[in-house]
Amino acid sequence: MPTSTKPPSGTRDFLPEDVRRREHVIGVVRRVYERYGFEPLETPAFENIETLLGKYGEEGNKLIFKILRRGEHESTGEADLALRYDLTVPLARVVAQYQNELPKFFKRYQVQPVWRADRPAKGRFREFYQCDIDSIGSTSPVVEAEQLAAVSEVLTTLGFRDFKVRLNHRQELPKLLAQYFAIDEASKQAEALITLDKLDKIGADGVAEELEKRQLTTRAQALVGLTEAVSHPMPDSLARMIELGQNTPAEGRVVFDAFLARGLSYYTGAIMEISVPDLAGSLGGGGRYDNLVGMFLGRDVPACGFSLGLERIIVVMTERGMFPPHVASSHADAMVTIWNDDSRADALALAGELRRGGLRVDVYPEADKLGKQVKYASGRNVPFVTICGDDEKASGTVSVKDMRTGEQQTTPRAETASFIRSRLGQRENL
Amino acid sequence: MPTSTKPPSGTRDFLPEDVRRREHVIGVVRRVYERYGFEPLETPAFENIETLLGKYGEEGNKLIFKILRRGEHESTGEADLALRYDLTVPLARVVAQYQNELPKFFKRYQVQPVWRADRPAKGRFREFYQCDIDSIGSTSPVVEAEQLAAVSEVLTTLGFRDFKVRLNHRQELPKLLAQYFAIDEASKQAEALITLDKLDKIGADGVAEELEKRQLTTRAQALVGLTEAVSHPMPDSLARMIELGQNTPAEGRVVFDAFLARGLSYYTGAIMEISVPDLAGSLGGGGRYDNLVGMFLGRDVPACGFSLGLERIIVVMTERGMFPPHVASSHADAMVTIWNDDSRADALALAGELRRGGLRVDVYPEADKLGKQVKYASGRNVPFVTICGDDEKASGTVSVKDMRTGEQQTTPRAETASFIRSRLGQRENL
User: pTM for the full model?
Assistant: First the structure.
């Protein structure tokens, strides 16, 4: 055993039950996004390193996984590729590259992993999935309203009843900092936003302390600001978005939050973040970024996007027991036992008949003692076991054992699949 | 425009139509594998570098993408992580790591990308998907027979009618080389296998020439060997697998091929490869590898697997026009137009009603001239457009334009979704 068998630090292996939970959420995300007219896009796991560097700020640069050049260049220790850090910058590259093939209003969704060399912590991973929607090509508030409706519908479909979407406008933040905090200089404002973004985590006192420590304003002024700015009026543009969301799944979900800052520097308009009471961070967030595509294309293209964090959604759903029971069901509806070595071919044929009948079927691979085979099925929660010995074979029947009741019944072989299907009841199969 | 907007060399962006084709194939693969009782597994994109090094031979080592250490260690130019090179070695690690949680017979499928720093060429990529099934824990030929049935069913379901699975046994190859080619020494045999594996590509003459050039045998002896070994008898163990596959989807597909070699060195028993007449390489391949898990676990565990290559399946399906028409359908069943700025909220509400009625619905984001909006829908092949002006609003109706016929009809608003659904006809929606 020369090497560790653990996955690398900050990453996870997903065993079957984990994958099923993830696929359940991803399936809902995809179906809802498709229903809203978003189209799927996938980009490579790595990008040319210049594509990513300088897009995520200084802190972001440090968290990018860099890939060593290959062959004779390997010994230089230089990197020419880097792992995807988010799904937005690759999208901006794609919009620039395929500008003549894409529709005027390009609405895409993308569900793929991203990688960040963050220090691993509870709920913070180095490999995690983002579920993004972005709309390219229009400055209309219909775009924001539709995205708010789409992410609200995703969460509602998953069973969330208590989420809120906080909404703010990037361009209100400088005004707010000047008016209530007496922070006027642009560079100081940018620094102050980083602190303000932590309000959720460190509270008003923490923010005030940090603003003073960074010499951006006094503690007293900051505390006044934090109190007074609460009643800062919502700008008309945001009121319009909320109004457009009446009679959509976003109705009643969206609230104005004058303090919402969002870390990423590329936002230019509305910014949004989703939260639930029992999670410190957010389930997702987004906003309008009308200049990012221009960094690749040379001319600006309006854009707005929203990203849901798969890992956090799964954390909350797991803690709250929100997964429907069928997601964690057994790997098979039935297991075919093997009577003896001579009947192995017939066991495989029977399995094929049951599969054609719409069942997920496992075959015990060896002609072990029958009791051992049945015990194995029981340990794996397989609800039905078939037995086909010499008698059954001679009479064209199959014995079916219902593992939940222990009851064993004999059916004509041709009716075995429908016999089991009817007893599986409401459980949907493919 | 400072940086190139192309994806990195050897990788691809998948635009919506590409993703739909890929998802169609992956969907079939997953459904069939589930029907055979295989369970999903996912592993991280990168592994600790020691996990991968030394598992794929000297050539393989060179093709592994290595990730630079981070932070203060970045300047050393050392790598501590590496991108997944196949799905088999990560599985072996997983089996060792979770031995107490996994069932005695662990049957898993895994559909994920792998990365190899191969020189890019037509049909050869640096990022490509593998669709693997592996069965851990049994030496029974039922395992091979079930895998042959499963991959045959995948291909049949996708519409392949002319594939063959070539079957050989790894331990027959040394005998064959000694008996017909007069190559007795183990190291020479290993070298000869690399040449023999190219028989498909370079033909008998090419193989004979290369064997002589490598001083493994004479050209004349090689040509005799290639002729005579054709009638080398199939070993009983393989005959049994074919027999077990009667009455399964593998029936009539599997043929013995005494020359099938398979590159990877970890195989210990049956080896298999799928081919179609119009593709030089294979659609997939696999075999038994009873010792690989032992490299991680310290004790051997029997294992057998099969890998389907997604990219090649898609290449052949595209060339042959095998994708069903609905895979390339429009991104939406209907597009809601916007009458004027005041009716935007109502347009979003109507879109919501149609979505609840089971339709995929796009909303034109701006109150452009109606003709422009309809033209946009036409350009995007959206089959239905809704118009809801002042008259319709007053009378509680919606005008629906069928873009395929140009016909426009007015329906009660509450019946609009079912009106469109019935005219979409057979096209299945979610």
Answer: 0.94
